[in-house]
Amino acid sequence: MTDKLQFFRRIDGALHAESTPLADVAREYGTPAYVYSSASFAGRFQYIYDAFAKLVPGRESLIAYSVKACSNLTILRLLAERGSAFDVVSGGELLRVARAGGDPSRIIFAGVGKRDDELELAIDAGVLQINVESRGELDRLQTIARLRGARARVALRVNPEVDADTHKHLKTGAAASKFGMSKSDAAAILGQNKQYTNIEFAGLHVHVGSMLSACDPYANAIESVRELISVFPGPIQTFDFGGGFAIDRASAPGLDPRVLAEKLAPSLIKIGARPILEPGRWIAAPSGVIITKVVDRKQSGGRTIVIVDAAMNDLIRPALYDAVHPMEKIKINNSGSRAAETVDVAGPVCESGDFLGRNVQLDICEPGDLIAILDAGAYGFSMASNYNSRPRPAEILVSGAHARVIRRRETFDDLLRGE
Ligand code: LLP
């Protein structure tokens, strides 16, 4: 289905981003570096738009890209220009979207534990909707909005108590989650809506988790809040069913947004509100790779360990979630047989958990060879840190045969700024 959305491919034995050889990018800009494909970001956003935008007659769905997945200004601008709205979870993300030229009236402000100053910022910016996660937050928002003479548009984030089949760190909708409020709290609040004089109750929000490959958790989550829709004060304007679409992996296919759209259409049409979705990973992950250089190789306990110049501070997903990222040697011997081996790929950080891949089947790599770590565009750079005083990598955007820096590599001075 989404083969047409594959923009990292091999041409004459050399891995390319669109029509740019990754080896050229490494030579020009150094390693480790994140390399993104603009056609991939655009194409994947468009695919979701085409699947969902016209689902409910007269109520164009709002595709709110989840900024946390990859928040580079140039990427946000690219998506804003294509009609994307944005899901933000902090004042910082809100300011990023504004700086990238995103329209504040198409921002959803979600997130557990928003501070007063962030709520003030959201009201002043005129965001489309604040997704409120508890009665305490709603009370604070009411006070802040009243003091500002404003009316805040709100969706209640409800915990649908749907358990999804995903990593424990990626579940948000199970019972005892820190996210959202219970259905009974939401029902009580909706019943007392008149006391919230500076709140406009616009809709409901559910989000079950991330990396979900089945439609059922979404359908179940919608079903589970149906009774709240019937007691909603006035017509419900928005229904936000979150993000979380899994990408294709070697071990399992991902979630095709078209299939999900077809499955959810009857319920969403029946609800009649404007659907909002918050996809992050599905758009960003396959749109980016990390390129890294082999520094060393050694044997240890019968295993071959390939040490590269990228590490867990650059891409923390393997260490944090046991995530498996496909890896490929960038230039392979195209003639005759390819010599492959099973290796562990580790970074230079002083942590035994600093592996980028284990049991990886890789063409034989010697020091100086280049490797691409795939599906790294989401939660890659955005979760990078300076651990071990390592400057964060450059971010490079490729369009066709053209590559440019969209965030320069950090320097030692960047690391010391503020100390
Ligand atoms: N909406 C809400 C309310 C969320 O909490 C999230 C993700 C999203 C949308 C976007 O989910 P996506 O479409 O990207 O799956 N760092 C982890 C993922 C954490 C996701 C947190 N919330 C990882 O690297 O896998």
Radius of gyration: 23 Å
Bound molecules: ligand LLP
What is the CATH fold-level name of the largest domain? TIM Barrel
How large is the count of helical segments? 13
SS class: alpha/beta
Helix content: 25-40%
Would you identify the regions where 5 or more consecutive residues have pLDDT less than 50?
none
Q: What's the CATH class of the largest domain, please?
A: Alpha Beta
Mean pLDDT: 95
Give a short synopsis of this structure.
28% of the residues lie in helices and 25% in strands.
Any overview of this molecule?
The chain is α/β, with parallel strands linked by helices. The chain has two domains: 3-37 and 285-416, Lyase, Ornithine Decarboxylase, Chain A, domain 1; 61-279, Alanine racemase (TIM Barrel). Helices cover 28% and strands 25% of the residues. It has helices at 22-29, 38-52, 73-81, 91-99, 116-125, 135-147, 183-191, 216-224, 226-230, 257-271, 281-284, 317-321, 412-416; strands spanning 8-11, 14-17, 20-21, 33-37, 62-66, 85-88, 107-109, 129-132, 152-157, 199-205, 238-240, 274-277, 288-300, 303-308, 327-329, 340-346, 355-363, 370-373, 394-399, 402-407. Strands 4, 13, 14, 15, 16, 17, 18, 19 and 20 form a nine-stranded mixed sheet that branches. An eight-stranded parallel β-barrel has the order 5-6-7-8-9-10-11-12, surrounded by four helices. Strand 2 and strand 3 (20-21) form a beta hairpin. Helix 2 runs parallel beside helix 10, helix 5 (116-125) packs across helix 6 and helix 8 (216-224) runs parallel beside helix 10. It is elongated, with a radius of gyration of 23 Å. The chain starts with 7 loop residues before the first strand and ends with a helix. 46% of the residues are buried. It binds ligand LLP.
